[in-house]
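#lab-general

N.A. 3:47 PM
ok so I finally got the sequence cleaned up, no stray characters, all 408 residues accounted for. can someone with queue access submit it? mine expired

B.Y. 3:52 PM
send it over

N.A. 3:53 PM
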Amino acid sequence: MDEGAGAANTVSATIGSHHRGTNQSGMRDHNQRVVLTLLRERGGLAKTEIARLTNLSAQTASVIMRELEEDGLIVRGEPQRGKIGQPSIPLSLNPGGAFFLGLKVGRRSAECVLIDFVGSVRGMRSQAYGFPTPDGTVDFARRAVHELRAGLTEAEGRRIAGLGAAIPFELWNWAEQAGAPEDAMNAWRTSDLGAILRQEFSFPVYVQNDASSACGAELVFGALGPIRNFIYFYIGAFAGGGVVIDRRLHVGASGNAGALGSMPVPGPNGRPAQLIDVASLTILERTILGCGKPAGYLWTNPEDWAGETPDCSEWIKSAGAALAYAIVSAAAVFDFEAAVIDGWMPASIRTALVDAASGAILDIDTQGLTPPVVREGTVGIHARAIGGASLPLSDRFLTGQSQPIREY
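B.Y. 4:20 PM
back already:
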């Protein structure tokens, strides 16, 4: 993206600030990001419509469109003929304009995904384990990236814009909950995953909390419509989440905002507990194993829990109740429009969990509050890996994404 010039103009107040372009000198990079963000959210648009929505002059918009087209980031569609005048030509994102890699490091499994410029998954590799180690993670990343890049042409490979790693921060603090050896998990204390990956690969590497990354995937690639403010829960081996306000992901100064797994909720026998101690798959696994039944399908087959049992139904009930308290507590802090629940689970289980949380909210005293509508996530089980891939996308091509990247 280059620098450029234009003439002054009045900014429209009818759209979000991240859709506003400027005709002032030296703002071409910003304008390109504004246009790419608009096309990502609204799909194909004609030049005149882009100029109107971004408040750019027709001349400035034409320059931006031409540069983006020359860079291979946007493509022309078929002419659309109206009743009068010349046919309009919609412009849209070019799927092959750029590629992004996402690495998810979970407590029980790892994934590496390759997505294109419109967010379509071009390839994925995964690995299940008892617990993650730094050396094992790097070995997996090295192998997975090599295999995924092999599926691209040489020209496409040069368009890889970066890799984003989505990983729980301070993994060593969760050894007991994850059932992992303390010595093995302590290796993460002195391991700088970002620095190691930057030595492995020639493209930029980003690191973000895994649950915040999943929330970022919902923000960038999700289908929530006009919702601008939502709280997000991702239920995996543990529970985590993220916060979106005015279409911006807020991760806080430490990169750990939205640490919803630590929210206090009623636990067993009504005693206070953290959300992760009630609404996490680790708790469901312990329950199933305690009944003498296998639970490996929880980690290896998230799209179809063939081993679904009444124990799962009981977990859904208790997890839904805990999520309801967390949602209501969040509503006391900020007036969220929606609470979004996604996770490492089949769609049917996610639906049941959303229904359980929605029903449990009705049993809570919400006087003085407006609880958000509880909705299912639209990205699905791979939200953390896809969210990792969204980090280089957001940093290099979008605007309005408040996502400081924490060095691990």
